Every structure is written in structure tokens, then in C-alpha cells.
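Reply to dn_fold:

You asked what the input looked like. This is it:
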Amino acid sequence: MNAVPPLRACDLLCPRWHRVEALERYRDVATDAQRQAPVYAVFDEAGSFLGLVEARHAAVFPGRVFADLIVRRQPLPVSADTEIDTVLERLQREGVDHLPVLEADGRFMGVVSQLSIFTGLCARERALRAERERLIERLTCELEHREVASSVFDGMLEGVMVTDDEQRILLVNRAFADTTGYSAEEAIGQTPRLLHSGRHGPEFYREMWRLIDTEGLWEGEIRNRRKNGEIYPEWLRIQPVLDTAGQRRYYVGIFSDISQHQEMRAKLLHLAYYDVLTGLPNRQLLMDRLQQAVAHGQRAHEAFALLYLDLDRFKDLNDTRGHRFGDQVLIAVAQRLSGALRTSDTVARLGGDEFVILLNDVRQDAAIAETAQKVLDLLAQPVEIGNERVYVGASLGIARFPEDGQDPDTLIMKADAALYRAKEDGRGRYHFHSDLLHDRLRQRIQRVQALRQALELGSLWLAWQPQVRLADGRIVGMEALLRWTEADGTSVKPDEFIGLAEETGLIDTLGDWVLAEIARTGQGLIAASCIDLRLGVNLSALQIKPGAADRLLRMLQLHGLSARHLMVELTESALSTQREGVRPLLESLVEASAGVAVDDFGTGCSNLAMLKALPITQLKIDRSFVMDLEHDVNDRQIVLAMIDMAHALGLEVVAEGVETAEQAQLLQTLGCDLAQGYYFGRPMPLAHALSMLQGSA
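and this is what came back:
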């Protein structure tokens, strides 16, 4: 019998996945019971595979198209012939539940998961048992033909032991010797007591022989001892062999060492219920314990609390120190949390930097608050990774059973809402759930939906504000400012929806729309001004990433606008975040003849080294220094210092928020180059901007 070939990824594909198109939405898919699955494979219109989206992630933003949900770094696919040990190692190392499987020609074949591997191994074990039964039948028919039986014996993967009716060992095969350590010469003539481990009492063996006598078969798991003294588990099947007269002549025992299967099963169970990185219970085990806590609480009328914890600004730590360093921080945090709680409590990692604590048998809010503050104080202490000390900090949201919910999903949702409020209040604190907070969260979700619809329905528009050269009063630039007017005519403040776009991942889509609109309408503004008008656009810090400059310049080229007409504006805080791609972005823009402005200068870090080191062409003085310029000597001195410093570095200076002729005159006297504000013109629709430019031409 040949060795069992190793299992490959294509042998254990998960049946519980579904194909979706890139522009489909989870909320539509989830309503179709036949299309519900724990993971979705996303394809574009050409049928090309784009990536995997897990249902638990998609459910958080049910209105987003699946293409937008592929925001996390996608795991590399595995080929169909990848062995299962390698697949398991990938699942464990990368901390994912599913991996895409591709055929040799690169076509998508399916999905492999921890659960499908576990199910496949169980199926293989059943197949092996069926194989053993077939071999027993062959052995029964051919036992008298020793030459044939010998070849079968030596070729079997399972150990075989044949005894006479007095239980003296007559025959053993090679697998018997390999498994037990006893050679055929050492075993023949002995009894099976040679292998007894002492783990089973007389009752166990009496019941075994009773079943053999009455049922003609015994099969089960048993602990035996090898020659070296090691005790191991084996799956044993004992069956009598009858002679032609119907009398029992032999007993055949066929067994296999299942220690490896047990280790694999234990490993799979651990992978299924525990987080690979931290060793904490994962979402699945948490939900199981939470369901038990709810059932127990309803029966015994006992209360418990759920604490939803999120590390503050952990993404910044990952971006600046690397994911390996971030993983070490997560491990340290998990150890602290585990050591700070009672053994009856549960701390679980949901994923990323999110943890959930289940506090059992607590009724008083004061006791819950005391534990929450204890956790926050513990995480506020520095974490030592190697020779570095890092301050992390966290925020907490708290939901209570039964006041805030009587099922796991509701409790988690409300604890998450309370966490969001804690972050809004300034981070590093905890917040109990309230109905008012839940209403605010629902309104926020509705606002996100409205923003998506605004992008689709054209409710967004650009307002234009002129920039004037103080020396002669000529308009030399127009800054584009994004506006949102709802169907009922209500204007949404930019601070509100820009922040919402950054939090929900819509900022790139929003930014692309703004750039396309500037490029599309900019030619008309430039023609109306009869000068090389600079068109200003604000970029969010989240839009700064590798390849951003190429993307921006390609969009300008697509719409026929020269880069020399563009002025990209970034705040001090955006430039000082040290995000990957800042310098390449600025260098590419300046090399293409675009301008780069530091917006709201004076309100952030005001890092002079940054001004010197980065390729910046313009500095915009924040309106807070201009508004009291006529009356405040300190403001005049600060503005003068900014202007002199900028000119010394070869930068053009723009003053924002100019509202009076006196402010404009003072700025000109102080040497300021350009100005913008209500004195020169409020942000206006495109038609008004064209009229203003034509009138000044």
C-alpha cells in the first residue's frame, strides 16, 4: 500500500464562500439567504479576482461596495498544490481566517480556511478507517495464504497484530514494529499485555471483551506503551476470525498511532478559538462565552459588563515603527490585560488594536468604573519593547447586561458606540453607554450614507475664493473649497464631512472628485483671468501615500490642465506627521512646476527645519494672526517675523482671513505678497468666479 499523499490546498477548499461583483453591496447580498457566507470573493467586471472581504468586516459598513471594503492589506494567494502544513503556517503567521487559492494558470479556484482544513482532516480520518475495514476483509479471506498476507502486512500503514484464541501473538507487521518499537521476534509468543500502559483498569478490558463476544467487534481509542516507555494514543480495532466450522481461531488487532492527529486537532481547535498573535480568545470564543454569560444571567438574574477597548493612535505607531514593532506592543498589552483581571473574566482580541473584556458578576457601576480606570491606568504606563519605551494609552466603552442589551451583538454594538464617545471626549478615558449616545451613532451612520449619496448624486460642488496680489490688487489665484448642499438646501459644514470622510475611508474618493473638478473647470477660470492663474486645492494628510503624486499628475493630464496652474495646500500637521510619501509627493509636484503651500501656518508645529528641508514654494499665514492685526502689536510683530522668515527662505507669502482695507494696507506695508479673505471676495460658485475674473481682466 502506497503512502498517503499529502493534502493540498485544492483538496480542502471551503464551501462557505460566495462570489460577488466589485460594485455590489453587502446589505444587498446579506438579504439573500442563498448568498450569505462568512467570506466573499470580489471580482471586477472583467472577471478578474480582486480580493477577499469577510462578512464580519463588511457588516460594519453594509452600504459600501465590496471594492471599497478591500482596504486592509490582502494576503497573498496560495497555489492549488500548496501543502496544508504550509497553508496552516500562512494562516497562523498572517493572522487571517481565509486565503484565496489559485490554479496553476492564475485563475481563482476558491478559498481555504482553518475550518475547511479541520473538516478535511476529519474526512481523511474517516476514509482511513474505511480503508482499514477493507483490509480486515482481505485479511480474513486470505489469512491462510501466508505469502499474500505477508505482503499485505508489510505494506499497511497501520500496525497489525494477530493472536490465537489464547491471545498469544502469532503475527505482526512492519508498522507494528515501527509504532511500538518491538520487533517481530520480541513480540511473537507474547500477549498484548506487552503493550499495556496501566492507564486502563480491569473494567475497561472486561467491557472490551464483552463487546467482542457479543458484537463480534471492538473499536476505540486506547493508550498503549512503546518499548521505550513512552505512552501514546492509538485507534484500535479488534475482530475475531472464524474458521470453516464457525469457531474463533484468530483475533486481529489493527491500530494506528493517532498522536499526530490529536496534535493537529488540538492545534486547529486553538487556531479556531484563540488569537494567533496574542494567545487571547478570539471573536468566536468571545461570542461563545458572551452567549453563555447572557444565558446564565437570564437564569440567575445576574449582571455583567462588557468593556470595548481600543488603543489610542495605534495606527500612527504602526506607520512610524513598523508592523513588527506594533505586534510586540499588542502582545505586551495582552499580557497586561490578562494579568490585571480575575480568572472568571475574559479578555479577547477582536482584531487590530481592539480588545473586549467580559466582567462577570458585577452589578454596581462604581465597581465597573473602578476596573475600567484600573485598565486605563495600566495601559497608560510605558511599554518597553527592546530598548525602547513607548506610551500607548487606550479608550474604553462600557455596556451593561441587562440594562443596555440582552444579546451579544447588541452589547458589543453599544459598547463600541460608547468607545466612540470616549474618543470624542478626548481619548484616554471610559464612557458608559446611553440611549442618547446610541442615537448619535445612528445619526453618524446616516450622515456617512448621505455623504456617499452626495458623491453619487452630485450634491457636492466647489466654491472659489480669490487670492489677490497686494502690490497691484490683481487676482493671481483662486482656492477651491469643497461644499455640500443637501436636497433641502441645508449646507453641511466642511469640518463635519471632511472629518467623516477621513474616518470612513472616503477621503480618497472625495479627493479624486475635487481634483477632477478643478482640472475640468480650471481652464475656464484661467481663460477668464488672462494670466497663469494658480488654482489651490487642499490635500488631507490621509491622501499622502506612496504613488499619490503620480496619481494626481495623471488626473491633471487626463483633463488637460497643466501642473504649473496647481497649488497644492497642506497643513503644518500634515507635513509634520512624517508619513511615508511626503517628500516624494512634494518633490514630484515641484519638479512638474506645481506649487506647494503650507496652509494655516502658525497653528501647528511651526517647524522651521521642515520649511527648510521640504520643497515648499508658498506659506499661508493663518487668519488668527490677521484678524486683530490693526489693534494687536504682538500679532503685527509675529506676522512681520513670518514674512521675513519666508522671504529669507525664498517663499511667497499669503495672508488668510483679510476682512478690512486696513488689514490689507498693513499687510502690504509689512511686505506680504498675496492675500485672501472676505475683503477681496467670499467663496463663490463657479459662475460668479468667472464674472469676477472677467471683470478684473
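The chain has four domains: 9-113, 143-262, 276-433, 461-478+508-696.
Hope that clears it up.
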